[in-house]
Specification:
Elements: H1 9-20, H2 24-37, E1 42-48, E2 54-59, H3 66-71, H4 99-104, E3 108-114, E4 121-127, E5 130-137, E6 142-148, H5 155-159, H6 164-181, E7 186-191, E8 194-199, H7 205-213, E9 219-226, E10 229-236, E11 248-252, E12 255-256, H8 260-273, E13 282-287, E14 293-294, E15 305-306, H9 309-326, H10 371-375, E16 392-397, E17 401-406, E18 409-414, H11 415-432, E19 438-448, H12 451-459, H13 461-467, E20 470-473, E21 478-485, H14 493-506, H15 513-528, H16 538-549, E22 564-568, H17 569-575
Helix pairs in contact: 2-6, 6-7, 8-9, 11-15, 11-16, 12-14, 14-15
The structure holds adenosine-5'-triphosphate and magnesium ion.
Length: 579
């Protein structure tokens, strides 16, 4: 006699449930996705004790007739695909016909549904996969599903559930994500009697974001089409005060997914633009023609497989790159009412605008250390085209801001952050080739420094050497510096090394060398860059503007501060009543 038997259906369903239903939140996700597939416009979700005790999802969608209501609880019964070909281009969230039977096999389950336009509905109760009753029932059009005591018949699984609060948090995370994907649908989530989310239907993503997160000046829009794909959404701007961490929501064809290719491209985009952001907030929606992505690769559909992975990577990188720094500089709006009565606007602020007549450290003949740096000026070969147009420098305001113009308006450039951006790029560029030029100090610099900071510098002596710094322990509390980067002014060496010690000491242990290098580059650039309150010649201003133009990410500094502000031609003409 053979040893193989067919498993009874309820046991087969329980096994399937092991994959589909990880926790209460996955039940919520499956039920809400079904409601969305049924064209609901309003979905009301209730969860008690993080969904462990009760989950209820009510929708005003298509509903089911009595036959479908019975069928939907059978395994592999679905209205969403019919033949193998359909798998190649799935347009609904569900398609396997597995979720409901799986959920019903591990809970006390109640379904009440009424098809649109039909007189009455159906109510079905199931316990641990066994249908207890099927009766005709009233109720509104649409579907209501109640799932009580998930895993009550599988104590081993129930034990693995987290605290009520942790499960509730996961439920609200999924509902929030689905709400972001479907702005046209209204969502209400009540968790243990508390209304967590309540968003009526709206017509677009910005309105939905506003409903959920309020006014967010710190997010920038992304919208780009490339190679038949479209990416849109909002991402954390590179603001100085901007969040370093935040929710990362990535959706592919309006599905919640975790995708390594996209996650990598996001990190990549931020890390070339700034050395600060690590896991920034993003809400990104990728649209891919359904025949170019396989959604049937993961038990809870949490992953997808792209036919052209590198295209997706490239697309995300470009779109984010544009949005982050190569996008337009922030625009200033002129307000005539800002001029206080009795304080006539002066035609020019005396002494504020000048050029040419002030000494500059770039002109000082003895200042040979600048030579190697300026010798490498000119377009950075690896830089992508910048969004900055050719500009004519007009002068300097308060020895801190360069005032310039192009065809499209006036620009105010922060000389320090602009130069810092330029130097950062140049340093990173040099590091990938031969390393930075070094200048040997005639008299070594001996610095007193606390042990932890000294140790941090010495531990990274190898990385520092690529920048041109040579440092060694000098006994006692001292550190000896024998060489420094050529582009750093000697009087900045002490401050730069102290800042570096501070950075490196503060960074996590086990930090990747790459991150340490970026940090060193940013700090070196900051100390080598022209300072605020420092007079510049017109020539030098022009030089900074030209270098900036040749720099990718020219509108943000490595720390994320804006480099320039614009007053557009339109704004000027409008205010002079010329248009
Ligand atoms: N809220 C609902 N409103 C109307 N019909 C529904 C609803 N929920 C489920 N159904 C019907 O029941 C069927 C089975 O649902 P189930 O979630 O088990 O499978 P599916 O959505 O087709 O695929 P998957 O297992 O991938 O979710 C669906 O195909 C759909 O026809
Ligand atoms: Mg489903």
């Amino acid at each position: 006699m053979g040893r193989i038997t067919r498993l009874p259906e309820d046991l087969a369903n329980q096994i399937a449930a092991g994959e589909v239903v990880e926790r209460p939140a996955s039940v919520v996700k499956e039920l809400v996705e079904n409601a969305i597939d049924a064209q609901a416009t309003r979905i009301v979700i209730t969860a008690e004790y993080g969904g462990k005790k009760l989950i209820r999802v009510e929708d005003d969608g298509l509903g089911m007739d009595p036959d479908d209501a019975r069928l939907c609880l059978e395994r592999h019964a679905t209205s969403k695909i019919r033949r193998a070909d359909d798998l190649g281009a799935i347009v609904t969230l569900g398609f396997r016909g597995e979720a409901l039977p799986s959920i019903a096999s591990v809970s006390h389950f109640r379904l009440r549904t009424r098809a649109r336009g039909s007189e009455s509905g159906t109510e079905i109760r199931v316990n641990a996969g066994i249908v207890e009753s099927v009766v005709e029932a009233g109720g509104p059009e649409g579907t209501m599903i109640e799932v009580a005591d998930v895993f009550y018949n599988l104590p081993a699984r129930r034990k693995f559930l987290k605290s009520d609060a942790a499960e509730a948090a996961q439920v609200s995370r999924f509902v929030t994500q689905l709400a972001l994907c479907y702005p046209e649908v209204g969502f209400t989530l009540t968790s243990s009697g508390r209304k967590v989310l309540s968003v009526p239907p709206v017509t677009n993503l910005s309105d939905r974001l506003y409903q959920i997160y309020g006014d967010r000046q710190d997010l920038v829009a992304v919208d780009r089409e490339f190679g038949g794909l479209r990416l849109h959404g909002f991402i954390a701007a590179l603001a100085e005060q901007g969040p370093v961490r935040g929710p990362q929501h990535v959706f592919v064809n309006r599905r919640i997914v975790k995708d390594r290719t996209i996650a990598h491209a996001i990190l990549d985009s931020y890390s070339v633009a700034t050395n600060k952001e690590r896991s920034p907030e993003v809400h990104l929606f990728l649209e891919v023609p359904p025949d170019r992505v396989d959604v049937n690769v993961h038990p809870t559909k949490a992953e997808v497989r792209f036919r052209e992975q590198s295209l997706v990577h490239e697309m995300v990188r470009r779109a984010l790159g544009d949005a982050l720094g190569k996008g337009p500089a922030p625009e200033l709006t002129l307000r005539t009412s800002d001029v206080l009565p009795g304080q006539p606007m002066q035609p020019a602020i005396p002494g504020a605008l000048h050029g040419g007549s002030f000494p500059s450290r770039w002109q000082t003949p003895s200042n040979l250390r600048e030579e190697p740096a300026s010798g490498t000026s000119g377009p950075n070969p690896r830089a992508e085209p910048s969004s900055v147009r050719p500009m004519i420098a007009l002068g300097q305001f308060r020895d801190t801001f360069i005032i310039a113009m192009d065809d499209e308006g006036l620009c105010i450039i922060d000389q320090h952050v602009a130069h810092e951006r330029v130097l950062f790029e140049r340093i990173m560029e040099k590091l990938t080739s031969e390393g930075l030029e070094s200048q040997r100090l005639l008299i070594p610099l001996v610095m007193e420094m606390p042990p932890a900071e000294r140790a941090a510098l010495v531990a990274k002596a190898g990385a520092l050497a690529r920048f041109g710094f040579e440092v060694e322990e000098f006994g006692g509390d001292s550190l000896k510096v024998t060489a420094m980067p050529a582009l750093l002014p000697p009087d900045e060496c002490d401050a730069a090394l102290r800042a570096l010690a501070d950075d490196l000491e503060g960074l996590d242990r086990g930090l990747r060398l790459e991150d340490a290098v970026k940090q060193i580059a940013a700090t070196t650039a900051c100390h080598a860059a022209v300072k605020a309150h420092y007079p510049l010649t017109l020539e030098k201003m022009h030089h900074i503007l030209e270098e900036l133009r040749a720099t990718a990410y020219s509108t943000v500094c490595p720390h994320g501060r804006p480099v320039m502000l614009r007053i557009t031609r339109r704004e000027i003409e409008k205010n002079f009543d010329r248009i």
